[in-house]
Amino acid sequence: MVDAATDSPVSLQVYRYTLGDSEVRPVIGELEPGLPQSDLVAHAHEALTSGTFMCYAVSQADDFVADELCFVPQTDHCDILSIRTNGWQRHHGDHRRSLVEILNNLAAAVACGKLRVLDADQLVTETATGEQVLHFDISRSAELTTAREAVDDVLREAGIDDTTRKRTTLCISEAVTNMLLYGGGHGGMTLRRLHDRLRVVVADRGPGLNFLNWMEPPKAKGQASMGYGFKIILDYLDAVGLSTGPGGTTLLLDRITTN
Amino acid sequence: MLRTTIAQGPAPTVFLAGEMDLDCADTLREAVAEAARGAQMVVLDFAGVEFIDSSGTGIFVRLCLDMKSQSTPLLARNLSPAVRGVFEMLRVPELVGEDVFQG
Q1: ipTM of the complex
Q2: Which DSSP category does A225 fall into?
């Protein structure tokens, strides 16, 4: 069991099964050694072929951790989401409910097509699609304000209504704030124009999302956590792409511009 | 950037204008602390707030709870639909109490 004092005592893993494969492959995090490939493949195959969202509790023989695995069928593959608690609740009170809520919210977002978890190839393709309209290197919140206003101008020119524009810039603010607070303190924000949408790419080279940040209440100095921010992002945008790992985090924030 | 103007009186009011994001904590805390001297409550007027995100919301929530514990509660008024929408999405009324919001 990982000591609770480590930086990431709670982590998200996403595995992917493609129909016909004999094993699943990690997309976020590492494959958990205690999870038999054969079971993962069997459940993923069942979820995919039946088109059924499935959720399993997972316990280990010597340590009842009761983590969960969600199998989310997609068109040609099945994403498997898991939040590993690493015994965190033993040291800091029972966060179990929060963890399950987080996992279920993420899995539901993947299931309904709102959230796409991107593998390395998809990330390269998706971040290069369309025409670059704006780019900002951001390391201070004042630069976020400038970037937000510039994106707002483009959204207005694209005919996006007032409420949708405000919601979009709010989501950008949430993603960039997370980058400044938790993603190494600096990174880039790029606006790209695709044929049917505007896409904001927020990318950092930080340590990857720490999902504990999704649960903590506002800190004494007042910063709220990405838990709130990510909820806003998922609720307010048309589509979201996510890639995260030790090499950094990239979020794709899409606003559809054609009906 | 958040700007503040204080109107002293029996119920001192801090008029907020601009953006409430990651940077607003010190400005907001200092204005409320100044307004709260000798007062029994402080009113925050949100009419001029053009933008708020979850960081700004978190700062407001923390300040509300701190002021309540010091027996100088905050009241919030003139929230725009955009600010109200963010507060409701983040369940701010549940966190700080419905009685914080006027009108």
Answers
A1: 0.84
A2: P
